[in-house]
Design goal:
alpha/beta; Rossmann fold; 3 domains; 5-stranded parallel sheet; 4-stranded parallel sheet; 16 helices; 13 strands
């Protein structure tokens, strides 16, 4: 009977963010039932006034007339929308995999009919694995495909992330000391012209794996080099990432010793406060939970378990390192009552909401997907939260 039981872990924290292009308009082309979640999310995120829905019926599917209806819908919307959009994003649902829309032909017709308006087609398809590129990564690539070549300027783009690194951290200061006058992130822009200036960056820094495919294509199409610098909680890795960034920009690396020292001091404080209290690292807290767990083990913390919703390949090397160097660290999958009830120490510190909720852990570090945490400052914040968790108690009523 236990094997049939599963935990339901409710959503925690901020509304789910959907990336878009500033000053654009989004037309969702889908059956009516498939658009409900998108519509509810738009209402919750305050973006309903920049979206519309073109519902396709069984008759549209059989006849194929929905492709012509898209152009007619765009024409009608352009008469209604004020101010006029600078770009049009056509979002198609997973039913399009069965319809077999010729995207290039559709885009060609739209561009000839509306020559002043850029178009992109994006797929909402959680089950698609076309060309082994995840749907979220492909969607980001479609957005950046709207960029047109521009002259180089002293700017850097942050790619893949949905939330900005904490401005109190060192990242923006370090880039400024390397002569970078602007750091742009898609989610933080509100003008189409500022979005277009991303095409003139000297470097793309990929903070989340979801942005890697877009960065690869931006290098091919726009000539912008890129570096993979996911959030790391290793002082040594952060140092290497800054060195690689300076080399890619052709600039001298600023003095990082003060930031590095603060991070190491925070690690020492947390080690003293936490002692041998076991830690449970949750995939809801870190995009690369095994990488976080490895860094914590290298600092001397006792990592009892890594709590996963599903397997990821992005930190497979760190998972293998833990298997060899920390065999006592268990891998536990969320939702499995028989596994979680026996495997996770309730007296430990749960890093991340899913594991904390499952355990009703009294010691809880509330971070989500590494958000705002980057570099030495991110390490310091995590360590201070670990130390603080030893002093407080979370109530789950």
């Amino acid at each position: 009977m236990d094997n049939a039981l599963a935990y339901f872990i409710p959503h925690h924290g901020r509304p789910k963010i959907s990336l878009g292009v500033p000053e654009s308009f989004r037309l969702n082309v889908c059956p009516a039932a498939c658009g409900r979640r998108t519509g509810i999310r738009a209402l919750g995120n305050g973006t309903a006034d920049r979206q519309a829905f073109l519902y396709i019926t069984e008759a549209d599917v059989i006849s194929g007339d929905y492709e012509g209806a898209i152009g007619d819908a765009v024409e009608e919307l352009l008469e209604l929308i004020s101010p006029a959009p600078r770009a049009f994003l056509i979002y198609v649902n997973c039913i399009d995999d069965f319809l077999g829309t010729d995207e290039e032909a559709l885009l060609d017709r739209l561009r000839r009919r509306f020559p002043a308006l850029p178009f992109a087609i994006c797929h909402i398809d959680p089950i698609s694995a076309q060309d082994l590129v995840p749907p979220g990564a492909r969607m980001q690539d479609r957005l950046y495909a709207l960029l047109s070549p521009r002259p180089r300027e002293d700017s850097v783009n942050l790619i893949g992330n949905f939330v900005s690194p904490d401005p109190a951290g060192e990242l923006f200061q370090v880039l400024g000391q390397m002569g970078i006058s602007a750091v742009r992130e898609l989610h933080a822009l509100d003008r189409f012209e500022e979005f277009q200036r991303m095409a003139g960056a000297r470097l793309n820094l990929v903070l989340m794996e979801m942005g890697r495919f877009a960065a690869e294509n931006m290098e091919k199409r726009l000539g912008i080099p890129w570096l993979d610098v996911p959030v790391s909680y290793s002082v040594a890795q952060v140092t290497r990432d800054y060195q690689s960034s300076a080399e890619a920009l052709g600039r001298p690396l600023p003095d990082l010793s003060a930031w590095r020292a603060r991070a190491l001091e925070a690690v020492a404080r947390a080690r003293t406060a936490v002692g041998d209290t076991p830690l449970i690292v949750d995939a809801s807290a870190a995009m690369r939970p095994f990488a976080m767990a490895k860094s914590l083990r290298e600092y001397g913390f006792q990592v009892a378990a890594v709590f996963l919703a599903h397997d990821k390949d992005m930190d497979r090397a760190e998972r293998e390192w833990l298997q060899e160097h920390s065999p006592q660290t268990r891998v536990v999958y969320a939702g499995r009552f028989d596994a979680t009830a026996a495997a996770l120490p309730k007296e430990g510190i749960a890093i991340g909401y899913d594991g904390a909720y499952t355990l009703r852990a009294p010691r809880f570090v509330d971070i989500q997907r590494d958000e705002t945490l980057f570099g030495f400052h991110g390490i310091s914040v995590l360590m201070d939260l670990l130390a603080a968790a030893m002093k407080g108690e979370t109530r789950w009523e």
